[in-house]
Amino acid sequence: MKTKSRVLASVLALGLSVTTLAACSSNNGDNGGASNAGGNANAGGASGAKDTITALLPPVSPTYQDNFEQMAKDFNAANPNLTLKIEPASWEDMTQKLDTQVNAGSPPDIAFIGSDGISKYVQQGMLMDIKDAATSDMIADYDPAPMEYMKNGDGIYGFPAYMEAHALGGNKEFLEKAGIDYKSVQKNGWTYDEFREAIKKGVVKEGDKTSRYGFVFATAGVASKDYLNILVKNAGMPNAFTTDNKYAYTSKNFLEVLKDIRQLIDDGSMPKELSSVDAGKRWNMFLTGQTMITGKGLATFENSANKNNEKIDANDGSAVKGSIKADYIVLPVPSFLGQPAVTTVAVDGYVTFRGKKEPTAEHKANVVKAAYFLASGKVAATTNNDLFVAHITKTGRTAAESMTVNRNPDNVAAVSTLLSHAAPARPDIPVELGAKAIKLEDEVMIPKLQALLAGELKPEDMYDALKKAAIDAFGEDGVVKD
Amino acid sequence: MNPSKKSFIKRKFGGDAGWGYIFIAVALVVFALFTAYPVASAFIISFQDYKPLGSTFIGLDNYTETFKDALFWRSIRTTIVYTILTVPVALLLSFAVAILILPLKKWMQTTFKAVYYLPAVASGVALSVVWLWIFDPMESGIFNKLIGLFGIGNQNWLGSSSTAMFSLVFMAWLSSHGTSIIIYLAALLGIDTSYYEAADLDGASFLQKLRYIVIPCLKPTTLFLLVTGVIGSFQVFQNAYLMTGGGPDNATTMVGLLIFNNAFKYFEFGKAAAQSLVLAAFIAIVALLQFKFFGKEVEY
Amino acid sequence: MSLYKNYPDRSKGKLFRNGTIVVLLLLFALATIFPIYFMIISSLGDPVEAGAMNYSLFPSKISFASYKFFFDYSEYSLRWLFNSLIVAGSVMLSNVVFASMAGYAFSKIDFKGRSFLFTLLLVAMMIPYQVTQVPLYILIVNVFDLQNTYSALIVPGLVTVYNIFLAKQFMSSIPKEIIESAKMEGCSQFQIYVRIILPLSKTVLAVMAILTFMDSWNTFFWPFLVTNTMDMQTIQVGLKNFRFANTTYFAPMMAGATISALPMFVLFFSLQRYFLEGVTVGAVKG
């Protein structure tokens, strides 16, 4: 559905976002006790002591970092006594920078990170709980599901920016050729067996060479864990831990998923070289018609595919070599063993940190203001639209009404179906358990999975190795036995 | 270095010790502040459960855990294998290239040197992307096309534990010799031509000159390249990290990667420090052996 | 008089020998520069994400859009190049001066604690930087309060153990007779260093200069850690901003890598005079 820009709505939205900001600055009377005051002089009458809030931000969307100056200016206009100092960083490197700063005891006030990183910083004692500083208006602005991801124990450690579904993506023409009713799949999902048959039909051979695979997932290096994770969520294991905090991947279901992973390759529906297909490669395979379905699929891929289609039409040699026109179709991940479909989601957001010194209440309130400014209203709306992801704040939705997005309505609907059964957040998992699971994943699960994908290890052997390591880590009673 | 020479030098240059200290003063201050201090901190941290807001001393726990960690030992083994496969070969290649460049015309020397040096100039991350493409597992991959010409079937280069290590080693062979070639060439040009003149008078052959003049004269250089090469190779992890993520099945997990993960991924900084110090001890032993074999200075 | 047999000019023997050598070197060179070739080729593509890149040996279309993209991307692009130049230049100069001094002292001057100090330097070099990085960061940022300054970028690299070691190894082969005779003529150690050691070591100093410059130029992580505004970043830090989400702006990244490699080339060719001149110890001696 093409959302046409409407002048009235845009005026309304602008007005609304300004009111929200004004409201939030008046909600917290902030005075005194500022830390290091920023260099920039404040225009207008200051309503409180000067304070500088630092934020370490990656290129969240393609245009995100271009807007830094405007963001800082807008924030300062709404809060004349506050300066928002934004440090840009690239995705891969910002974790390292943040981690060094955290270890040195001097992190920025706000960093944009994945919510799965929260528990490790909580363990270091370097996150700032904003439970008391965030107003109820702020909290109420967010959809509850993504908000849960910013919690750990009973603390709230920031505001979410978006909740992105990790799905699959199909080529519309090939899906239709293979006789797959993708619209029905988008609505009702599919089982592993249905999926297996479907991707078998997608395979095209020339002689004994496969010229098109049914399904290709990026599994090279550490990306392999994404593949396993989105599958097991649909096999009755929405989290590495069960609700009573036992390690779930020792379940028999896990073994079945491993067997199925192998089966799809052995069927010839997926390439036998899958273990070294990386994200770039599989997207190239999608655009050049070498695969019918690819994963993991993010919402922005529709945009990438559309752009390449335009280049093919322009016929100026700038389209991907050998590419064909492809309509990107959002598809759900199949479910296993009669278990309900559970969508893997990535919730990223603005996480709040503290330094060695206990932050004052005023500084805390100022940081919350800045984090909320970034994670709601106009800033959030622009960013999420850039990314093709759903809005998760009321103010963001309102601000977005005036913005045009060119998306396939079927895909929009499919994504909201996916998000309706998103894997719930698990703030109740103790940080020590979470840390152990991450280590187990890095040192046993991923390495063994890589070997399984390469055909060097049997599913049973991988399962046994993981089970043994899990029992070593969590004890006989700490793991699921079925 | 050479104890027998020490007394001789002392006799001759008795009052020079002061100059010695002056000459190394700046180096020592920089070293003390920016290397020794962080190393000392790391040493203290290795006995701690490190937390930015207050660490606790836990004695030797980090070390005992390190010694019990099977993956740590395995990664040390992997790193040793990688080092043995890469460093000597790269050194030999650089030596051969440096010797071969020598008789050419100046402009050719310059061009070749520039060409060989190029990979060292370009950003490692950008190049790793290219290498990923060279090792593309499908038929379309460069390497697979190449071996296809010889009738060898598709290989899953980085994805299979039998070829992943080879792929990384191969990459090192072709991209880590620029610096060594230049250093070797500088050393070759530094050899006093009077040695060759004398050898020519004796009617020495090319190989004899190589054996009796070049190789002994290049010993200090070889020692330098070997020691720094081994140190670098023991600490390497970027390529493995970018290309294979340490897999498959930990076949390419280097100890540097493990230390990195402990320090930053799991925030077990104390353990990372302990592992680093154990690793440093390893490298020191290897370096010591190298000094034993190559350390004797050339006598003129 | 050299390592190789002297053929008369244009003799068949020389042609054959040099021809064989050139063929061998060319083959090796081809394998070496292939990745670079590909880097440059792909920098000429359209600025698209990695997944949409062309896996092809020859460009289907030549466009300089990526280079434009690079300079348009940020108003700081040129500033980044400038910062890198300042940092790498200072680090290079101070290393050449101080490492050669220390190298000379460690190789030719006898003083108490010499081998102990040198061993200490070497051992410290063996400790992986992953664990020294946090204490160093605490020192520079929390103790000296230098974040976002040129000092923070330059100071830790003022003189490296690698260069001291390199200088020491090269200077160890300078004949001691030269130093002795200079002593006889009444030269102080400083004069010996300036008048004899430095001229004799210009080959290795040129090598050291270019290696240090390159290393500093290519350093990413430290400048990334200690800078926090765009105007203080170096080119390597700035370049990394091209990497976006799960994909990469491929062509611009390659264009950036090409651009950042260019100054190295200029430096290389301007310094190569020193690389190629053999140093004749005999001339100094006589």
Description:
The complex is a heterotrimer of chains A (482), B (300) and C (286). Chain A is α/β, with parallel strands linked by helices and 482 residues long. Chain A is 45% helix and 14% strand. Chain A has 2 domains: 9-164 and 346-420, 3-Layer(aba) Sandwich (D-Maltodextrin-Binding Protein, domain 2); 167-342, D-Maltodextrin-Binding Protein, domain 2, CATH 3.40.190.10. Mean pLDDT of chain A is 86; it is low at 1-46. Chain B is mostly helical. In chain B, helix 14 (255-265) packs antiparallel against helix 15 (269-294). In chain C, strand 1 and strand 2 form a beta hairpin. Chain C has 14 helices and 2 strands; from the N terminus they run ααααααααααααββαα. By secondary structure, chain C is an all-alpha fold. Chain C is 69% helix and 1% strand. Chain C has a two-stranded antiparallel ribbon. Chain C is flat, with a radius of gyration of 24 Å. Chain B: It is found in: Cell membrane.
Features:
heterotrimer; B: 300 residues; mainly alpha; MetI-like fold; two-stranded antiparallel sheet; 2 strands; flat; C: 286 residues; two-stranded antiparallel ribbon; disordered C terminus; MetI-like (chain C)
Short description:
The complex is a heterotrimer of chains A (482), B (300) and C (286). Chain A has helices spanning 7-27, 68-78, 91-103, 118-124, 136-141, 144-149, 172-177, 182-188, 192-202, 224-232, 252-266, 279-287, 300-314, 361-374, 377-387, 394-400, 409-420, 431-453, 459-474, and strands at residues 51-57, 82-88, 110-114, 151-152, 155-156, 158-171, 204-206, 209-217, 291-297, 328-331, 344-352.
Give me the count of strands of chain A.
Answer: 11
Specify Rg of chain C, calculated over alpha carbons.
Answer: 24 Å
The greatest interface between two protein chains, and residues involved on each side, is: B-C, 117 and 112 residues
Tell me about the biggest sheet of chain A? 9 strands, mixed
Shape by Cα distribution of chain A: globular
Sheet with most strands: strand arrangement of chain C: 1-2
What's the quaternary structure here? Answer: heterotrimer
Structural class of chain A: alpha/beta
CATH superfamily of the largest domain in chain A: Periplasmic binding protein-like II
Instruction: State the helicity of chain C in percent bands.
Output: 55-70%
Q: What is the CATH fold-level name of the largest domain in chain A?
A: D-Maltodextrin-Binding Protein, domain 2
